[in-house]
C-alpha cells in the first residue's frame, strides 16, 4: 500500500505543474520555452530511472531502495518549492524525477511478486489509480492549489503522504541484505546505452516541436544519439544470457500485444490531458481553475469505478472488459473531435465521464493480461518495459499531436483564407458589419483574419482528437488478439 502511495505521488507530479507553469515561470523569470524544461527534466530523469529499478532492487533490496527514494522524493519536493532560479528548479525537478521514477515500477513489481494470485486483480486496481487517476487529477489539483495558495504548495502537498509512506515501508517490508557483489557482474554497457538512449529520446520528443524538429542541430543530434544508443542496447541485451532487461518477453504473445496497447494507452491518456487544457485556454479562454474543473471529471469518477473492476472481472472476461474500456475511451476521443465555438466545459464534462468509465477497465485488466504468462524471475523486466512503453507512448503522442496541431492549423487557415474574397456575398456582408462595429476597414480585416485562424485551430483540434481515437482503436484490436487467461484466473480468483 505504501509503495502504491509513492507511485501515485510520482505520477501525480508529472502533471501537477502543468496548470501552474505560467506562475512558476513568472516567479523564476523564465520564458515559455525555458519553462518547458521544468516538465522535461522530470520526465527525462524518470524514464532513465524506471528500467534501472529492477537492478537496484537486486542490489540494495526492495525495502532499502523504497525508503531511500521516498526520502529523496520528499527532499527534492522541498527543494523545488524553494527554487531561486530556473536552473535550480530544473536540477531539483530532475532529482524528483529520478527518485519518483523508481517508485512506479516498484509498485508494479511488488504487486506481481508479493500478492497471491487471487488478490492480484485488487493489486492491479490500486496500481490503476496511480496510472490513470493521478495524471487526470494532477492539473486540477495543481490549478486549485496555485490559485488559492501559491505554486509552492504543489510541492508541499507531497510531504504528509511522503512521511506516511516511509513509515509504512519501514513497517511493512522485511529487511534483506544488500548484494554489493552484483556490482562485479553488472551490465554497465546496458545501463549506459539505455540511460543515454532514453534520456536523449525523451528530450528529442519533448523539445523537438518547440525547436522545429530537423531545423535544430540539437534535436537532430539528440535523435541520432538516441537511435544509436537504443539499437546498441537491444543488440547487447539479446546477446547476453543474463541481460539487464529481458527483451525476449516481448515475444510472448500476451505481453507483446499488451505492450502495443500500453503505448496506445499512453497516447490516449497523456494526449487527452495535453489537448484539453490547451483547447480550453486557447479557444475558450479558460483560466487554470476552470480548466481543472473540466479535467476533474476525467479523474474523480475513477475513484468510485476502480474498486468495482475486480468484481466485474468475475463475470466478464478480462480481455473483453479491457476491449470495452478502450472502446469507451476511443468513443470519448472521437466525440471530443466535434468541437466548435459553442463546445466548451459543459459539453466536455459529459465526454469526460465516458472517458473515466473506460480508463479503469483498461488499467486494471491490461496489466493482468500482460503478465499472466510471465515468469516471476522476469517480473522486473516486465515492469520496466510496461511502464517505459506507456510513458514513451505519452511522449510520442504529445510530440505528434503538437506537430499535427501546428501543421493542420496552417493548412486549414490557408484553405479558409482562399474562400475569403470580396466577391463572396457572405464575406462582403460580414466585412460591412465588422467595419460598422470596429470603425474602420483595417480593424475589420484583422478581426476577420483572427476569426479565420480560430476556426482553423478548432478544425485542427478535431483532427488531433481523432488521432487519439485511432490510437485507442488500434490498442483495442491488439487486446482482442491476446490469449484468454488460464482457467481459474478471472478477476484474480484462482481455483
Describe the structure.
The protein has 495 residues and is mainly alpha-helical. It folds into three domains: 174 residues, Growth Hormone, Chain: A; 56 residues; 247 residues, MFS general substrate transporter like domains (Growth Hormone, Chain: A), CATH 1.20.1250. It is built from 20 helices and no strands. It starts with a helix and ends in a 15-residue tail after the last helix.
Tags for this model:
495 residues; mainly alpha; Growth Hormone, Chain: A; 3 domains; disordered C terminus
Strand content bin:
under 5%
CATH topology of the largest domain, by name, is Growth Hormone, Chain: A
- Give the beta-strand count: 0
Order of helices and strands: HHHHHHHHHHHHHHHHHHHH
Discrete helix count: 20
Shape: globular
Q: Residue-averaged pLDDT, rounded?
A: 81
Return the structural class: mainly alpha
CATH architecture of the largest domain: Up-down Bundle
How many structural domains in the coordinates?
Answer: 3
Unreliable parts: 491-495
* Share of residues in helices: over 70%
The major sheet is characterized as:
none
Q: Return Rg in Å.
A: 24 Å
Distance between the termini: 25 Å
Secondary structure topology:
Blueprint: H1 2-15, H2 21-27, H3 32-35, H4 37-60, H5 62-81, H6 86-114, H7 120-148, H8 153-156, H9 159-172, H10 182-185, H11 188-207, H12 217-239, H13 253-282, H14 288-305, H15 309-312, H16 318-336, H17 345-371, H18 379-419, H19 425-438, H20 441-480
Helix pairs in contact: 1-6, 1-7, 1-9, 4-5, 4-6, 4-11, 4-18, 5-6, 5-9, 6-7, 6-18, 7-14, 7-17, 11-12, 11-18, 13-14, 13-17, 13-18, 13-20, 14-17, 16-17, 16-20, 18-20, 19-20
Amino acid at each position: 500500500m505504501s509503495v502504491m502511495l509513492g507511485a501515485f505521488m510520482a505520477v501525480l507530479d508529472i502533471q501537477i505543474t502543468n496548470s501552474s507553469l505560467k506562475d512558476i515561470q513568472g516567479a523564476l523569470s523564465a520564458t515559455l520555452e525555458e519553462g518547458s524544461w521544468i516538465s522535461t527534466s522530470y520526465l527525462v530523469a524518470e524514464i532513465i530511472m524506471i528500467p534501472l529499478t529492477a537492478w537496484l532492487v537486486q542490489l540494495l533490496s526492495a525495502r532499502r531502495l523504497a525508503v531511500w527514494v521516498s526520502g529523496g522524493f520528499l527532499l527534492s519536493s522541498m527543494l523545488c518549492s524553494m527554487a531561486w532560479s530556473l536552473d535550480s528548479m530544473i536540477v531539483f525537478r530532475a532529482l524528483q524525477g529520478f527518485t519518483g521514477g523508481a517508485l512506479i515500477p516498484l509498485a508494479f513489481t511488488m504487486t506481481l511478486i508479493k500478492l497471491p494470485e487471487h488478490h492480484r486483480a485488487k493489486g492491479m486496481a490500486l496500481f490503476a489509480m496511480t496510472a490513470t487517476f493521478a495524471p487526470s487529477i494532477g492539473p486540477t489539483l495543481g490549478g486549485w492549489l496555485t490559485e488559492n495558495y501559491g505554486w509552492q504548495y504543489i510541492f508541499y502537498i507531497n510531504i504528509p503522504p511522503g512521511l506516511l509512506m516511509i513509515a509504512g515501508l519501514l513497517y511493512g517490508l522485511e529487511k534483506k541484505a544488500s548484494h554489493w557483489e552484483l556490482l562485479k557482474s553488472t551490465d554497465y554497457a546496458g545501463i549506459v546505452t539505455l540511460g543515454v538512449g532514453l534520456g536523449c529520446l525523451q528530450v528529442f520528443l519533448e523539445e523537438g516541436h518547440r525547436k522545429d524538429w530537423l531545423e535544430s542541430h540539437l534535436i537532430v543530434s539528440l535523435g541520432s544519439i538516441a537511435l544509436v544508443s537504443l539499437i546498441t542496447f537491444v543488440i547487447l541485451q539479446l546477446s547476453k544470457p543474463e541481460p539487464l532487461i529481458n527483451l525476449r518477453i516481448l515475444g510472448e504473445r500476451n505481453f507483446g500485444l499488451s505492450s502495443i496497447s500500453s503505448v496506445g494507452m499512453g497516447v490516449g491518456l497523456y494526449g487527452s490531458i495535453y489537448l484539453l487544457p490547451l483547447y480550453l485556454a486557447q479557444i475558450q479562454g479558460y483560466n487554470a481553475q476552470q480548466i481543472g474543473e473540466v479535467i476533474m471529471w476525467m479523474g474523480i469518477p475513477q475513484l468510485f469505478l476502480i474498486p468495482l473492476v475486480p468484481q466485474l472481472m468475475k463475470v466478464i472476461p478480462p480481455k473483453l472488459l479491457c476491449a470495452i474500456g478502450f472502446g469507451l475511451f476511443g468513443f470519448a476521443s472521437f466525440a471530443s473531435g466535434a468541437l466548435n465555438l459553442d463546445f466548451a466545459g459543459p459539453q466536455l464534462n459529459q465526454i469526460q465521464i465516458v472517458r473515466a468509465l473506460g480508463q479503469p477497465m483498461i488499467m486494471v485488466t491490461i496489466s493482468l493480461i500482460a503478465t499472466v504468462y510471465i515468469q516471476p524471475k522476469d517480473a522486473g523486466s516486465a515492469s520496466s518495459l510496461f511502464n517505459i512503453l506507456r510513458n514513451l507512448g505519452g511522449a510520442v503522442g504529445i510530440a505528434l499531436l503538437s506537430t499535427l496541431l501546428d501543421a493542420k492549423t496552417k493548412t486549414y487557415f490557408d484553405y479558409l483564407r482562399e474562400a475569403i474574397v470580396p466577391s463572396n456575398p457572405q464575406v462582403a456582408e460580414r466585412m460591412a458589419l465588422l467595419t460598422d462595429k470596429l470603425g474602420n476597414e483595417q480593424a475589420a480585416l484583422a478581426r476577420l483574419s483572427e476569426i479565420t485562424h480560430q476556426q482553423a485551430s478548432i478544425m485542427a483540434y478535431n483532427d488531433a482528437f481523432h488521432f487519439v481515437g485511432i490510437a485507442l482503436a488500434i490498442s483495442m484490436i491488439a487486446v482482442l488478439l491476446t490469449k484468454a487467461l488460464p482457467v481459474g484466473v478471472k478477476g484474480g480468483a484462482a481455483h
